[in-house]
Automatic annotation (TrEMBL):
Originating species: Gordoniibacillus kamchatkensis
Enzyme class, spelled out: isomerase
Superkingdom as given in the UniProt entry: Bacteria
Gene3D superfamilies: Jelly Rolls (2.60.120.10)
InterPro entries xref list: Deoxy-glucuronate_isom_IolB, KduI/IolB_isomerase, RmlC-like_jellyroll, RmlC_Cupin_sf
Any Pfam family: KduI
Protein name: 5-deoxy-glucuronate isomerase
Keyword set, alphabetical order: Isomerase
EC numbers on record: 5.3.1.30
GO MF annotations, alphabetized: isomerase activity
């Protein structure tokens, strides 16, 4: 198994955890990521500590509370492949959250360093930015859940729907240099769901000097780690691919650099 793939547990832990990435386990500084799969009626309560958190309700409905807020009956999609925007909750550091599952529930817990600059808030589906990016067989659907234009200290969160036979995170791009305004340094996780679930996605992670050059076969429910390098994704024919991206770094801005060998693709006439 590649060190850049994190698998899900078959049976959730006591608090519903099936997958966990910490800065320590990933060997980096900023991004933490977990997936909880909870049963109806189950409750999970946690302190945020020094991390800000974005709870993304991937599927199912829940009540979510923080120290000062309560949102009841949030969540609408029962599968990410409904392709409707999710409900999410932003929780600052030095706060707490409690999730009570009203149905079977899958929640992504996205974490990065917080500085206490923003209050807890609900991110409703109508507040999620919708975008169709690319063209032809590099067209994909984007939901900007927590983009840099919206308040947070470190986190950037986005979900992507890649139709079968299409590519995404394409042309290959990277964001591994702290070299603003041209490029920002951002660690990144990809959490994959695949439909039908016996399928797979393919992701390549590589650097210009090929000191890192891995081609990953990623299954439903797995996460990939992108510490550096270019990182395109392909959805094989017959299998639609969803992924949730979490990014964070020293500066909260997404400035990427396309692989110069492949950047010409964006200049090709869209009628081709």
């Amino acid at each position: 198994m590649s060190p850049y793939i994190v698998t899900s547990e078959r049976q959730p832990g006591a608090d519903g955890t099936v997958l966990s990435v910490t800065p320590e386990s990933a060997g980096w500084t900023y991004v933490g990521f977990e997936v909880l799969r909870m049963t109806e009626g189950q409750t999970v309560s946690r302190e945020t500590g020094d991390r800000e958190v974005c709870l993304v309700l991937l599927s199912g409905r829940a009540d979510v509370a923080t120290k000062s807020e309560l949102w009841q009956g949030i969540g609408q999609r029962m599968s990410v492949f409904e392709k409707t925007p999710p409900y999410s909750v932003y929780v600052p550091n030095a706060d707490r959250y409690e999730i009570r599952a009203l149905t079977a529930l899958e929640v992504a817990v996205c974490k990065a360093p917080g500085r206490g600059n923003h209050p807890a808030r609900l991110i409703a589906p109508e507040q999620v930015g919708f975008e169709m990016r690319g063209y032809g067989n590099i067209e994909r659907q984007i939901h900007n859940i927590l983009p840099e234009q919206e308040p947070a200290d470190s986190l950037l969160v986005v979900e992507v729907f890649t139709p079968n036979g299409h590519w995404s995170s394409y042309p290959p791009h990277k964001h591994d240099r702290d070299a603003l305004p041209d490029e920002s340094l951002l660690e990144e996780t990809y959490y994959f769901r695949v439909q039908p679930e016996q399928g797979f996605a393919v992701q390549r992670i590589y650097t210009d000097d090929r000191s890192l050059d891995e081609t990953l076969v990623v299954k439903d429910g797995e996460t990939t780690l992108v510490p550096r390098g270019y990182h395109p994704v392909a959805a094989p024919p017959g299998y639609d691919v969803y992924y949730l991206n979490v990014m964070a770094g020293p500066h909260r801005t997404w400035k990427f650099h396309n692989d110069p060998d492949h950047s010409w693709i964006m200049n090709r006439p869209k009628s081709e």
